[in-house]
């Protein structure tokens, strides 16, 4: 963490920007308090990049709207029921929320919002002390009502008031604690963690969409593992992702040095390392949450498929079962269809390569591997490599060399055959013209035959494809 002087310089730079200075001056002239609050203040004090500008004010939403209409042509209600108005001011997107206090009723998924009158009352109701910080503008006065600066220095996650009251007000804060533990590398204090255990069942009143968004933010952290461990240890994961804690009781197929849960966390970390290593130069480091979720969940089919056979443990078809479980769970969390499909496909295919490590595939098998992976091939490369966590150095090196080989063969075949877009050498129109048949199921069967021919033998040329198609058609009677 930078020195206090450096942190205040960072805050002063934000306050002196054209957009912020204009807002502060305008709200002050209208007789209202105005402050930069929460995450931006926290990140500036930590020396982290400030990407979002969140403000709070004593002005009520209608007053805020009227003030913003005077300085911006682009103003909208981001959540009027929650007292939040947004605007574009000199190119900066800003969110301004009226001082407030909100309480969840026992049976409600939405908070009842009441407005407060002082910055101190507003800060006390916030989630954690490190976010209960405000920089009053334009006077540049730092307001810290609950020791937030001390907690930042100590790397602590603590609620401003009692954690029981905080998590009763908004149970999603428990997930936010796990996310901040990963994002900032902070420790959740004992009483706060104990309250997470006690109030974990209360997460049921939170909408699936809000839980999903918080989980995705956690998975986007540089190292999501500390937060994931916290979710599992406190019982929060049982509430929305029970397949994950279920892995703790399932020994891996070696049955020696770690359970499937620890293996999955290792795979996740290794996948993130490979994701960063393989990112093309010049591409923004956007976290690949599809890859990360697939890595975390790739073995969730093991508990349901565990069998004890001949003194050992097997998990036959856990890839297929895991893909179905992941698809069901992610749909319940309201993930978009595309993400659900991609995660499930990666889980379904994550074991395919290990047959190659035992016996080198034919060109036909390599083509099918690429065809089946489709757009997920680059992710599948990473997941499959990350899935090697054995402590047997010789075995690990053998698997690494085998995957180096298959990637090399894919590149060679792709250059020779445009492997990424494997198609029959005759399309549907050509099939109908050649065989003299109308559109219908028979055209589809012919197309599938030619596709299998293409996968098995590669490019054989249009003339040979026509001859083989005629012979196949004759056999159909």
Automatic annotation (TrEMBL):
- Gene Ontology BP terms: RNA repair; tRNA processing
Q: Where is the HD/PDEase domain?
A: 256-477
Query: What Gene Ontology molecular function terms does this protein carry?
Result: ATP binding; CCA tRNA nucleotidyltransferase activity; metal ion binding; RNA binding
The entry's keywords: ATP-binding, Magnesium, Metal-binding, Nucleotide-binding, Nucleotidyltransferase, RNA repair, RNA-binding, Transferase, tRNA processing
Q: What Gene3D superfamilies does UniProt report for this protein, alphabetically?
A: Beta Polymerase, domain 2, cca-adding enzyme, domain 2
InterPro entries per record = HD/PDEase_dom (IPR003607), HD_domain (IPR006674), HDIG_dom (IPR006675), NT_sf (IPR043519), PolA_pol_head_dom (IPR002646), PolyA_RNA-bd (IPR032828), tRNA_adenylyltransferase (IPR014065), tRNA_CCA-adding_enzyme (IPR050124)
Q: What class of enzyme is it?
A: transferase
- Cofactors (names): Mg(2+)
| EC numbers on record | 2.7.7.72
* PANTHER family reported for this sequence: MULTIFUNCTIONAL CCA PROTEIN (PTHR47545)
The protein here is known as CCA tRNA nucleotidyltransferase
Q: What organism is listed for this UniProt entry?
A: Leucobacter insecticola
């Amino acid at each position: 963490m930078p020195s206090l002087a450096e942190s205040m310089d960072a805050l002063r730079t934000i306050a002196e920007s054209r957009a912020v200075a204009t807002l502060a001056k305008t709200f002050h002239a209208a007789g209202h308090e105005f402050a930069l609050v929460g995450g931006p203040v926290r990140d500036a004090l930590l020396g982290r990049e400030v990407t979002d500008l969140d403000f709070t004010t004593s002005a009520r939403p209608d007053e805020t709207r009227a003030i913003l209409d005077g300085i911006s042509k682009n103003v909208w209600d981001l959540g009027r029921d929650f007292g939040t108005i947004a605007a574009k001011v000199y190119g900066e997107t800003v969110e301004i929320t009226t001082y407030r206090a909100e309480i969840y009723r026992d049976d409600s998924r939405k908070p009842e919002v009441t407005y407060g009158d002082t910055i101190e009352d507003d800060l006390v109701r916030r989630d954690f002390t490190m976010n209960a910080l405000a920089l009053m503008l334009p006077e540049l006065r730092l307001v810290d009502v609950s020791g937030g600066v001390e907690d930042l220095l100590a790397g602590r996650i603590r609620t401003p008031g009692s954690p029981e009251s905080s998590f009763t007000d908004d149970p999603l804060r428990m997930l936010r604690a796990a996310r901040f533990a990963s994002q900032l590398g902070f420790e959740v204090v004992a009483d706060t963690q104990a309250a997470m255990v006690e109030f974990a069942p209360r997460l049921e009143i939170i909408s699936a969409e809000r839980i999903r968004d918080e989980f995705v933010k956690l998975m986007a952290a540089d190292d999501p593992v500390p937060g994931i461990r916290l979710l599992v240890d406190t019982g929060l994961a049982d509430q929305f992702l029970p397949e994950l804690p279920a892995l703790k009781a399932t020994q891996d197929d070696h049955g020696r040095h770690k359970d499937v849960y620890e293996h999955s966390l290792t795979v996740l970390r290794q996948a993130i390392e490979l994701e960063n290593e393989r990112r093309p130069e010049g591409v923004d480091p956007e976290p690949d949450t599809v890859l990360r979720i697939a890595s975390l969940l790739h073995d969730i089919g093991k508990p349901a498929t565990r069998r004890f056979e001949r003194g050992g443990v097997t998990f036959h078809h856990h890839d297929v079962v895991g893909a179905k479980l992941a698809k069901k769970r992610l749909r319940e969390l309201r993930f978009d269809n595309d993400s659900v499909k991609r995660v499930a496909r990666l889980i379904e295919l994550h074991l395919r390569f290990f047959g190659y490590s035992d016996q080198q595939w034919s060109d036909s098998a390599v083509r099918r591997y690429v065809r089946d992976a489709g757009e997920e091939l680059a992710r599948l490369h990473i997941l499959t490599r990350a899935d090697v966590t054995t402590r047997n150095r010789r075995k690990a090196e053998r698997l690494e060399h085998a995957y180096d080989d298959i990637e090399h063969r894919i590149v060679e075949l792709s250059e020779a055959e445009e492997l990424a877009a494997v198609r029959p050498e005759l399309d549907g129109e050509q099939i109908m013209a050649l065989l003299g048949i109308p559109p219908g199921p028979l055209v589809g069967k012919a197309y599938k035959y030619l596709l299998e021919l293409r996968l098995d033998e590669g490019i054989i040329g249009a003339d040979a494809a026509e001859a083989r198609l005629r012979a196949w058609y004759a056999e159909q009677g």
